[in-house]
Design goal:
With 367 residues, this protein is of the alpha/beta class. 40% of the residues lie in helices and 19% in strands. Helix 10 (296-306) crosses helix 11 (326-334). The structure holds guanosine-5'-triphosphate (GTP) and magnesium ion. Residues 188-189, 213, 219, 259 line the site of magnesium ion (MG).
């Protein structure tokens, strides 16, 4: 048996080489794509490698043997079974032959489909990417699976992991209090202004804003400016008791939005203080605000440390600035937390929308 490896820039050229060298009876044992040149696996040229084998024919028949004329017989009942058995035998021989060849070959690097590389390029954690592509059919001309079809299957898997979506739901005949917590500068205050405007103008609701961010004068001024433009009342609170009193004063509002100071996830004292502020009312729904531009490891640390405040939902900001949605997807894959809104820019009140699973999945798999 003859086994050869052919390399070309595309599958058609590789197959032409196989045919030219080993002929039409060659058996394809294995194909893979890889990158040649480049730096750390990037920017290289994509190449295709095809491993093919040819079962070399037995020595030529003795010259004196005369060719036996072929007798063509019509199939009779019962012949079909014989044909199937012969075919099965042939296939078993072929499988044995391939197994013998593979056993003699040096161990190959684990094969991963091209979509795995695309996920990892989009900062999906390698272990998560591996789970996502597990069991996907192979794509490419050798298997007959259209790459677009395989991509669509993966897209459905991604969408499934982003299904848990719910914004702020104000009960028909009741009210809602929502607090926004998170690290500094992620966009909590801007997001509150966007939501206040949308609920007050868009849905005609009575809205109030309470801020516990009293660390910086500029923070209060920033929110006061928004509150004045939107024409909603703003309360400034320093202690849990004041928070309780402010919520009581605004019990007639359909929606109360609470702004908090950005906390360093590493400052346990600040987190405990935040926890105490939110503990004044068990009905406060807490959204942990995270920026999509944050590195996954840092975002994971933030989620773990803010878990003392038991946030019910994640809200992701700055999608317009993120080069990919790796952090967002990795977190939602790991935590069974509901996703509320995503923000897409600095403009108040427009740059905010309810998360859309299919749209986000599309962005996760950006080429
Ligand atoms: N590009 C972009 N910028 C945003 C977005 N949301 C907020 N920002 C900007 O991010 C910066 C910080 O926004 P803030 O709303 O003050 O953030 P914060 O979380 O309240 O910050 P602290 O109160 O200091 O913790 C501002 O310049 C905002 O305009 C967004 O979706 N996209
Ligand atoms: Mg703020």
């Amino acid at each position: 048996m003859k086994v050869k490896v052919f390399t070309a820039s595309n599958i058609q050229d590789a197959m032409a080489q196989v045919k030219g060298d080993l002929g039409r009876d060659a058996v394809i044992l294995h194909t893979r794509r890889f990158r040649k040149g480049g730096f750390l696996g990037f920017f290289g040229r994509e190449m295709v490698e095809v491993m093919a084998a040819l079962d070399t024919p037995p020595p030529a028949p003795a010259p004196e043997r005369k060719p036996v004329p072929q007798v063509v017989t019509l199939p009779r009942p019962g012949d079909e079974d014989a044909k199937v058995t012969a075919l099965q035998l042939e296939m078993a021989n072929m499988r044995k032959m391939i197994e013998q060849v593979l056993a003699k070959l040096p161990r190959q690097e684990k094969q991963r489909p091209p979509l795995y590389d695309l996920l990892v390029k989009n900062d999906i954690e390698p272990a998560i990417a591996e789970n996502l592509v597990q069991g996907l059919p192979d794509e490419g001309p050798l298997t007959g699976n259209n790459p677009a079809f395989v991509r669509q299957l993966l897209m459905e898997r991604l969408t499934n992991h982003l299904q848990r979506v719910e914004g702020i739901v104000v009960p028909e005949t009741g009210s809602k209090i929502v607090a926004f917590i998170g690290p500094t500068g992620v966009g909590k205050t801007t997001t509150i202004a966007k939501l206040a405007a949308n609920f007050a103008f868009g849905q005609g609701m009575k809205v109030a804003i309470v801020t516990a961010d009293t660390y910086r004068i500029s923070a209060v001024e920033q929110l006061k400016t928004y509150a004045d433009i939107i024409d909603v009342p703003l309360e400034i609170v320093y202690t849990p008791d004041e928070m309780k009193a402010a919520l009581f004063r605004h019990r007639d509002k359909r929606l109360v939005l609470i702004d908090t100071a950005g906390r360093s996830p590493r400052n346990q004292y600040q987190l405990a203080e935040l926890q105490a502020l939110l503990a004044v009312d068990p009905y406060i729904e807490t959204h942990l605000v995270l920026s999509t531009t944050t590195k996954y490891a840092d975002a994971l640390d933030t989620v773990n440390r803010f878990s003392v405040c038991s946030p019910q939902k994640f809200l992701f900001t700055k999608i317009d600035e993120a080069s990919n949605l790796g952090t967002l997807f990795n977190l939602l894959y790991q935590f069974p937390t509901t996703l509320s809104y995503i923000t897409t820019g600095q403009n108040v009140p427009d740059d905010i929308e309810l998360a859309n699973p299919a749209k986000l999945a599309n962005m996760v798999l950006r080429d």
